Amino acid sequence: MAKKTARKKTTKAGTTSKTTAATRKTPRRSTRKKQPANEKIVALVDSVVADAAKKRDPSIVIPMRTLSNAHYNKARRIIEMGDRTATRNFFDLNKAKTFMQTVLIAGGCKKLIEEGKTVSIRGLYYLSKHTIPGTNEKTFNDQNESDPVIEDLEVALDALREELHVFADSRGSIAGNLTVTSRGDEIDLRRMGAGGMGIPSIVEPDVFTFKKCNAKFVLHVEKGTVWARFNEDKFWQKHNCILTHGSGQPPRGVRRLLHRMHDELGLPIYCLLDNDPWGYYIYSVIKQGSINLAFESKRMAVPDARFIGVRSKDYEEYGLSDDVKIAIDDKDIKRAKQILNYPWFKGKKDWEKEIAAMLKHGFKMEVESLLTKSISFVTETYVPQRLRHRGKWLD
Amino acid sequence: MATRTASRDRGTREQTEQMQFPFAPAGGENHGAILPEPAMPRKTGQSVKKHIKNGTATTKKKAARTLRKKAAASREKIAAPTTRKKRRGRGYETAESMSKAQREISVSEFFAKNRHLLGFDNKRKALLTTVKEAVDNSLDACEEAGILPDIHVKITQSDADRFCVTIRDNGPGIVKKQIPLIFGKLLYGSKFHRLKMSRGQQGIGISAAGMYGLLTTGKSIRVTSRVGKRSDAHYYEVQINTKTNAPQVVKDKTVQVDWDHGTEVAIELVASYQKGRSSVDEYLELTAIANPHARFEYVDPAGNVSEHPRATDTAPEPTSAIKPHPYGIELGVLIKMLKETRGQTMAQFLSGEFSRVSPGVARKICEAAGITTRARPTRIGTHEAETLYKAMQETRIRPPMTNCLSPIGPDQILAGLLNGVKAEFFTASTRSPAVYRGNPFQIEVGLAYGGELGPDPSKEPEEANNNESLVRRGKVVKTRRAPSQAKLMRFANRVPLLHQLSGCCIYKSVLEIEWRRYGLLQPGGNLPQGPLAILVHMASVWVPFTSEGKEAVADYDEIRKEIRLAVQDCARKLQAYLNRRKKQKYQADRRSTFERYIGELVGACAGIKRINQRELTANLMAVAKHVTARADEELSLDGKARDDNGKARRRSGRPKQSEPDRPRPGTSSAKSASGIAAAAALGPHAGAEYGENTVVVDRDQAAAGPLFNGDAAP
Questions:
Q1: Do B580 and B689 touch, CB atoms closer than 8 A?
Q2: pTM of the model
Q3: Known catalytic residue at A126
Q4: Dist CA B334 CA B184 (whole Å)
Q5: Annotated catalytic residue: which of A72, A125, A126, A270?
Q6: Which of B590, B619, B627 sits opposite A52 (nearest CB)?
Q7: A56–B608 C-beta distance less than 8 A
Q8: One domain for residues A245 and A128
């Protein structure tokens, strides 16, 4: 049954895949890009100058990136950012420095845009870091100060990170029955050896396109170690699929790629994650988007993604040994309850049961726990079994 | 023995002077007991033993040895412990034999033995007491004569522990025939028999200093005095005869001096000189603070000349003597007064001899005591006197007149503190007169805060609170400045009190105050911590000292209460200042934060777009100035009074003469080395917004930062 739907989708996606990248996506992007980012940055400076001229406190309006300003859109099944904003004033003792930092980062981005180059967020941090003349103070003390400022700027300018020519470290890998073009180079993901291809931070259609896809679905696993197990067993070859991982909480590049594979290639996304609150939340981020990047949800979330394991009941079902148990602590319990309270988990009986079962067990399990049965148990028995039984998936 | 050592030191030239030493003949009657320094002379020690031996052997033949016995009588005390065992009950005296040794003790003999009562406990204190007694006398004399005092103190060192102290004033001088009595007789003076506010009280001080000098060095006290331009100066060398408490004039001549009037006293004494706490230096510093109308010049043993300039030209109001108040006398005194009065009737006696007793009050007292108003005071018996005394205590009588008091006054205290303490905030408060035991008194308090008094906890919290020394491998690597404890300056009738801090009523009262309430730290119930100096002055016709040495004020509830109220008044003003400064610091911090980031912000903007950088900076600065307007207001306090300041000053109703631009003659002539002069030249600006009688000196105007120096006022 699973195969059937998957194939159905694949054929559907297969027809679109060749055209989508170029045609369907581009117009949507261009509507976003009404005004180029560098012009928005100039407008920001203009407002500062204008405010100062009127002897007013210069301010930047930044949409809030908090839980209170993140709404779950039931119809679209994604998290969307609300319209609450915070005003960042310069003449506020607590915000003066952040204000200055925001403008500094904007200046750095403008330079990057003009020179047509991209740097990592760490690179931008170094670009903008210097000592304030006449003091011992640095504009940025560490990257933890600059990263949120970059995100602030993204939402304030309504410009994406890639429009600002900034990217994050690439984390996560991909391998499988897919051929892509990245910056003009054609890459066959079937011939990637043991490491697979690192998923770049920016996978927008202008730099990253799908050339040829024969896969039927995407299996996303939590981390590299599990992914390596699947890759070594040539799981993607046997099951004609694409294998990805996101090194824990997947970065934007991985999420964007999953979204595009689902959207443009019509591939179903199946997730194999740890049975613990962090695993649940990774799934939640892939499925509905994150609170912090709620403004990107429509480009990244995959509402149709499915959670295939690891389930709490697997412990009994597969007769796993006691050694796989990892006792849950207060932090886990707190996080689990927090997750249960998110609007997008509420009302999902299966999930409520699943989390309750985990709490009742009093232990959590990692994907690796399945290795205790046999080394290839997870690739040869567990996942194939799961893929056959739709009823055991969690939505 | 002492004389022998001394003569060895001095050589033969001064042998003649040694001969004049009246109470130290070679046989040494009793001076061995007076002198603590040399050990018991061997020769005399032997004679004691010998005498004892004789005593045990021939008890009945004692009469023959009266002479020797007499010599040993004064040593009985010392000898007793060693002799008791040997006597075995056979060496007891009889009434007759004891009567031979019984004789009158002269007051000088008493104080020569008990000199610690007068402040000559040790060498260091002896030097201070000598200077102190002379300076106090000079100040009293000048004040009574209405002269602005100009006092020179010079200490020279002639030997390891030998000093010569010379004090000269510009007072009225002393009449020739009084000189020997004043300087050569204990308990001789003008101040004992009156109830009037003055520094000296008993008439012991200077003659005791002379006596100490004579005892330790054998040198006479040298006095030069001139009463006016027309008369010559007299030079006297006076010694005191301890046996008779009478002066002996050694030299008497007329000399030429280059000053018009005044007195110069020179005393040579065995002493030791050390700077620091309770030193002559400190005494003079404090005296200058409490006597801003006086000028001091001081030459220390090293030859360094320092000057405490006059801070004000206003001499203190002359005080008048008052009669005792009925509440303040004791029964014995009353009986004595009854005997000695010239009043014919009780009514005349009561209203004539006491303060605040009108004929009406006198009648009430008599009624209460059951005595007719026309009774003769001399006929009142002891029993009746007791009822009279009780009646006097029970009748309601108004508190004594207070015109006998001459407080320093808040303005003068401020002048003194400004002159002597390098601080930022000054405030003073004078309480209205109060009464203890029928004696009027008045408490004044001055506070100085900040500046060079120590690290400021509000400015550098880490520096002020951490008193750590970093020790690595047993060595002190780094030490932090200790949190400074407040300095308490105690004064009684303008005389600084330097000893017996913990026994003093003033100290106890200051400890009683909850300094935390006023924004200061007070760990462990000690004096508050912080760069604070507290001046407490008690003015009274009779300051209740705990001892003749005038070292501490006795504890009376009334005095304690007044001190507490006065200190609290000042502390409230200090608190207002501290709060204000905290706010100011916050605003200044804010502004400097903005200032720091404005440059960065403009730079970043300029990197994005071509803009007029100067204009943007100016505009942002203007906004910053507006936002932190409060800090600006504080900065403008430095004399360039704003409208709102002026209002504040008027509201507080400060007395006119204490306006900040009041003439400060002392400071204009002051040496710049004093530092305070430079600060005063900047103009101490009124701290009127913190309360009355408050001065704020802006010592670190740079602290606020170069902020708006080139400020762009649009």
A1: yes
A2: 0.57
A3: yes
A4: 32
A5: A126
A6: B619
A7: no
A8: no
